[in-house]
Amino acid sequence: MNNNRDRKYKEIPGGFFISFEGIDFCGKSTQVKLLASKLDKDGYGVIVVREPGGTEISEKIRSILLDNSNRNLIPEAELLLYEASRAQLTRELIAPGIKAGKIILSDRYFDSSTAYQGYGRGLDIESIQKINLLASSGIKPNLTFLFDLDPEIAQYRYSSLPLFKDRLEEEKIEFHRRVRQGFLKIASAEPQRFKIIPADDDIINISKIIYSAVTDIIS
Ligand code: TYD
Prior knowledge:
alpha/beta
């Protein structure tokens, strides 16, 4: 998912990296698309990626991670697969994009590993943070939007859709509650990087809040 075009764009020295986080069905992917199109219209160079995935190799890793037949994937193997996908994505797209003065929008990044594999599955948080650092080559988002939503509302959203549910979406509600609390804890430790978005608000309102938070910083 690289909507980078061959044209002159408004360069941001040192680039600008934004990640979007939250539980499944919190609505972040819609907001990534809306923000990308606004920033593109404003003349910035925008790169949109998603995790797990975003490069050819990372998308192959994604298919292992979301495959319903991999129910006995052990938590440590799961963590390392997410991190492998991230290492590839960071080196292949994120680092060069930042260097070129572009805006990178990432649908999830390393905070998802801390929230899902750490707070959700119970793996050691400090060990995850060390692996996050390795996989991300020390590249941290300048800004992270956390879409905060009650898992009951998220569950209602997806149960009403006739969608195929992947391995993680099938997890029990208690798991998603732990993940949500985990995200809030991560955000409270880094209030300068995080902006918490109440995700049960209207799509258009949320998109305005996000756009103005970003343009306040970059313009
Ligand atoms: P995806 O279908 O992309 O869901 P979403 O649109 O909610 O991002 O699936 C990604 C799943 O992987 C999602 O359930 C969150 C999970 N995940 C982790 O458990 N750890 C991670 O490090 C990442 C990046 C994602």
